[in-house]
Structure formats: C-alpha cells, structure tokens
C-alpha cells in the first residue's frame, strides 16, 4: 500500500510516495506560497496529482509547521504560513479526492524515526530536533503524544532558566534558547566578538566577520578538531541532556533520538548530551539510562512519517 507524504516548509513543499517499509520511491517539489493559503493548498494538490499519475496511492499525510488540532485535520495556528483554524485536510481532500491526515511536522519526523529508524524496537521515544529552532516528538506506548488539543510535545518552550533569555514565543528562558542552532551561533559570535583566543580560528574561517559565523561553519570546524567550536557544541549538547532529563522524569523514554542539522556533529553533540543526562536524570543510579542516538532520515523524515501516519489509524 502506497501513500504520499507532504512536508510543507517555509520555502518549498516536498512530496514523496512512500511504501510500507518507509522507502521513498518517487518525489515531487513545489514552491511554498507562504502568504496565500489557497495557493498553498493548490500547490500541494498539484504535487499529489503528479505523483498519482505513476503510482496507485491510497492516502495523503501532510506535515505542517504549527499547532495541529487533535482531530489531525485542522491547523489551529502557524506563525510562518498564514494559517488560522485552517481546515487543511478537508480543503486538500476536495482537490485530490483522497483521504488526508494532517500532523505537526516535528511529530511526523519523529514518527518516521520511531517506525523505521533507530527507535523501531522501542515503545517509548523522545525525539529532539536541533535546527534553527528546537522541535520535539514524543511516543508513549507506541502512540504519538498529542494532548487534549493536539499541542503536546512542544519541548522547545519548557522553561530551562527562569527569567532567562527572551524567546520568540513571548516567554523567557525557554529550552530552545539554549539548545537550538540559533543559540549555538549566538554564543559563538558573542565569544568571538570579545576576543576569546579559542575562537580565533573560527573568526579567521569567517573572514574576520563575526556575523559570517553560522551553524554549518561551527560544525565543520568542530569535526576538524577545532577546540573552540567543540567547546560550544558540547555546551549545547549539555543543555540538551539537561532538558531531556527533565522530560524523562515525567515520561521515562527508552531512547532519545537527536535530529536536525546540528545533529550532523554526531558524538561531538550526543556525547555531552548523554553525559549531562546521566548526571541529571532522577533516580539515575537505579534506572536504565536511555541512549542518545542520531536520527536516520534527515530532511526526508517529515515525508516518510506523514505518509505512514496517513495509513495508520492508531498512531
């Protein structure tokens, strides 16, 4: 049985035909008309039609950045895509004549890692996606945790530091402000601008321009052995471990999957996260410590997870 997974990003719509083993067998792409919901839905439908011409699909799953209702059909709010209480599933169904399921994009990506990736043998998983922001997906007893209104799993906005760094959500001290790629870049730029000698190679690599320092550059230099870059990645990893320990006190996951662009640093990030988790989680001397592992599917995870959720009634 084949289904289509749609990953709607700020600039592009990625669509793929996915089989029951999580393999993508065909793909299509469209530009995202971010400010026009009607045009966006038409672009999604156009990609679906293209893929259906060659493949007999039975359903469509859409991963959407934003707050998706527990009905898995309505986008209640999306900051970057001009959606407010948008009946996305019904609108797309009318255009493609297929059943449509809508899921939060982080949940969709997490579901792919749970079903087909490193958490495939687990029943309880925490996924933390470290990119520009911090995303989260939680699986409890084999089911995605969505909460009463569909808003569960927003780990980015747990309070990590009371009255700490301002967050775009309007609160202060959110975990995202210490664990996301933007936090990494902010801390590295701040250190480089004060003349920290450990950051001298970073500044040289950035052509002497502090503002040219970005996440990929930090990861590249860290992988090459640069001590300054490694120090800052380790600090971010430590915050991840701290946040995961707080979540584990409530949910007790078997495995913690780390995805997103920053996860490409591998053990340079996961090692410090695992260490901080081991020294912070409650009852640490008496419990099996959940391992931190790198996600498998990269930017394909949203498509794979959304497609699988479209044909999974009890996820």
Descriptive report:
Helix 7 crosses helix 8 (227-251). The protein is α/β, with parallel strands linked by helices. The mean pLDDT is 94. The protein contains ten helices and 13 strands. The protein has helices at residues 37-52, 88-96, 105-116, 176-179, 181-193, 200-205, 215-223, 227-251, 267-280, 301-310; strands at residues 2-8, 12-18, 24-31, 57-64, 67-68, 75-78, 83-86, 100-104, 125-130, 134-140, 143-144, 255-259, 292-294.
Describe this structure in a few short sentences.
This protein is an alpha/beta fold and 315 residues long. Helices cover 37% and strands 22% of the residues. The protein has helices at residues 37-52, 88-96, 105-116, 176-179, 181-193, 200-205, 215-223, 227-251, 267-280, 301-310, and strands at 2-8, 12-18, 24-31, 57-64, 67-68, 75-78, 83-86, 100-104, 125-130, 134-140, 143-144, 255-259, 292-294.
Notable features of this structure?
315 residues, alpha/beta, five-stranded mixed sheet, globular
Helix content: 25-40%
Assembly form of the protein: single chain
Number of helices: 10
Choose one word for the global shape. globular
The number of E-state strands comes to: 13
Terminal Cα span: 17 Å
């Amino acid at each position: 049985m084949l289904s289509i997974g749609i990953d709607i990003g700020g600039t592009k719509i990625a669509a793929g035909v996915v089989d029951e083993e999580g393999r993508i067998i065909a793909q299509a792409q469209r530009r995202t008309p971010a400010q026009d919901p009607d045009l966006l839905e038409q672009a999604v439908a156009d990609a679906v039609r293209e893929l259906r011409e060659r493949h007999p699909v039975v359903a469509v799953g859409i991963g959407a950045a934003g707050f998706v209702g527990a009905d898995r059909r309505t986008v209640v709010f999306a900051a970057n895509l001009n959606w407010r209480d948008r009946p996305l599933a019904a609108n797309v169904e009318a255009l493609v004549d297929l059943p449509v399921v809508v899921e939060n994009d982080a949940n969709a990506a997490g579901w792919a890692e749970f079903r087909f990736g490193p958490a495939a043998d687990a029943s309880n998983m925490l996924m933390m996606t470290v990119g520009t922001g911090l995303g989260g997906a939680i699986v409890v007893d084999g089911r995605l945790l969505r909460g009463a209104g569909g808003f569960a799993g927003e780990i980015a906005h747990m309070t990590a530091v009371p009255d700490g760094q301002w967050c775009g959500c309007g609160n202060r001290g959110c975990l995202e402000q210490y664990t996301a790629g933007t936090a990494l870049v902010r801390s590295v730029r701040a250190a480089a601008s004060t003349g920290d000698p450990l950051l001298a190679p970073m500044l040289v690599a950035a052509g002497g321009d502090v503002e040219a320092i970005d996440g990929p550059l930090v990861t590249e230099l860290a992988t090459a052995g640069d001590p300054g870059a490694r120090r800052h990645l380790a600090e971010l990893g430590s915050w991840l471990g701290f946040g995961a320990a707080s979540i584990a006190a409530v949910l007790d996951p078997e495995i913690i999957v780390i995805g997103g662009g920053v996860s490409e640093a591998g053990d340079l990030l996961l090692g410090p996260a695992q260490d901080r988790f081991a020294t912070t989680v409650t009852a640490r001397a008496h419990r099996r410590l959940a391992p931190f592992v790198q996600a498998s599917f990269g930017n394909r995870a949203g498509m794979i997870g959304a497609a699988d959720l479209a044909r999974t009634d009890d996820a």
